[in-house]
Amino acid sequence: MKKRATVSLCMIVKNEENFLKTCLDSVKDIVDEMIIVDTGSTDNTVEIAKKFNAKVFSTTWTNNFAEARNVSLSKATKEWILIMDADDVFEERDKQKFKDLINNGEFDGYFFKTLSYVIENNKNDYIYNSNIRLIKNNGEYEFKGAIHEQILNKYRETDHSRFKLEDIRIHHNGYLKSVVKEKNKRERNIPIIKEELKKNPNNPFHNFNLGNEYLALGDLEEALHYYNIAYNNIQIESGYANKLIIKRISCYIELGGYDIALREIESALNIYPNSTDLHFYKAYLHQKQKKYTLAIKQFNKCLDIGDNDSDFMFINGCGSFRSYFALGDIYLLLKDYEEAIINYEKSIKTNNKNPLVYYKLATAYTSIYNDNEKIVENMKVFFNLDSVNDLILFSLVLSNCSIYDYSLQLLMKAQKIENSDRVLKEIGKNLIYTNRYKEAIDILKKIPSSSLYYDEVESNIIIAKLLLEEPINLEEIISIKNVNIQKSLLGIYFVYKTGESPTIAENTEQVLKESIKLLEIILKAKEVLAFEKILNILNYIESDKVLLELAKLYRINNYNDLAVEEVIRSIKEFEVIDKECSEILYFYLV
Q1: Which domains are assigned to the chain?
Q2: Which pLDDT score is estimated for 182?
Q3: Long-range contact pairs involving 399-404 (C-beta distance under 8 Å, separation at least 24)
């Protein structure tokens, strides 16, 4: 009987106590030794590693990832080396494939599929990358590059034909905003990459990685600058060429360079004709340019190709739920509600984790039916009415359609399953919408000051008291810890009571956001006189976006004529308009 091949897990770590246990748990039954190189942890990382009988080695951090990783490779004693990061998790269902691979693999190394999550608690929305994860421990390979290091042959030019992509998945949490912020990744990475570029300014890989850092910071122009340098120097066979192409195109789109983006897409399609991602971007461009017939045709092409496993897969769902959702949006705008419903429902069937699709589907149904019972019956098939999460989401969707009675029934059912703060908060809001202010206050007061929702709840209580004309102690407002909610409420209070408010000149965007939220509660409650009175708060917030945000509030709540009026006012008074409000003008004036 053939002896089973052996594997060393090689990792570098620093302060990874939040992730390391989960990572090591996911591979403990498929590796024969764990090599952990610690670069200066001050938390419980090393202790966690030792509980797994890992061999832990300490090394001084020199701002060079390749050096640290090569230390880990040098300590490996098994036939194969599995390369992972602490915030990775090996897919349980792919372990047998992995075992078969190490016993029968003929290549020097293998790329696995890395699913990088970008939204907290959402495992259905990820960016796809292929990364070298498994190499033969034959002494020929090492990491090179201070950051975003590559595995290359030590002795000669790397023969990329010796590496193969395998359908084995690694889940990666390092792109989550909370993780990036906690680790100060951008501040750490940018100086290291710039130092590398001093040695070789046109190095395509380092320019690509620097572009990625600026893209993550939202600096699209700087990102595009470095992507262009990388693009002009890259060999198309490089493992990251596909990612560079798609990110460069996305920058052109976001910066409004639609014609350039389309030209680059067509050029890339000559190399990757079956790339669903490229066809999706082409469809998205047509949609942005309001060429809806072309967009529909192109999104359908994405569906025909499907979510294939080509080398050019970067964004998941382009050949399924994303294209169905986009088609639903187009048909909704064109007022073809039946087609919108068909596509939104298909989007849900291929990925039921996108909350927005339920709101859009309900909007389409309300455009066809005036009967709330029919809307509820058509929508309820998509929810598990024994799940608190589903009950809350369904109630919010119906509340958005002003179907408050059934929305409240769902929340009451949720309360029987879970009498939690989040359920009470939504019940209280629903009662305000239906003008049952005293009941709302009684419910909301049950939520303790230790609750995560306390500031929001207190603001809702104060709004309910205002609408009841009950006396309000200013201490109630001042005690709210969230400064932006506090400022918004103080302004609303003074405007409502005196017709005037102190000018709000600091944190204006956040105060405006909170003010719009509170105005929406009053608007949903259909308290017209109170709304018109409190609306004056916007005159005291020093922001040129106040009318645009008001227009969006009207649009969301189906006051479309008022939305158009506010967009026009914004153009006249502030000479300001954004993409969303330009859409409002287009669809309600054309």
Answers
A1: 7-176 (3.90.550.10), 420-543 (no CATH), 546-589 (no CATH)
A2: 47
A3: 399/429, 399/430, 399/433, 399/524, 400/359, 400/362, 400/556, 401/362, 401/363, 401/366, 401/375, 402/433, 402/524, 403/372, 403/375, 403/376, 404/430, 404/433, 404/434
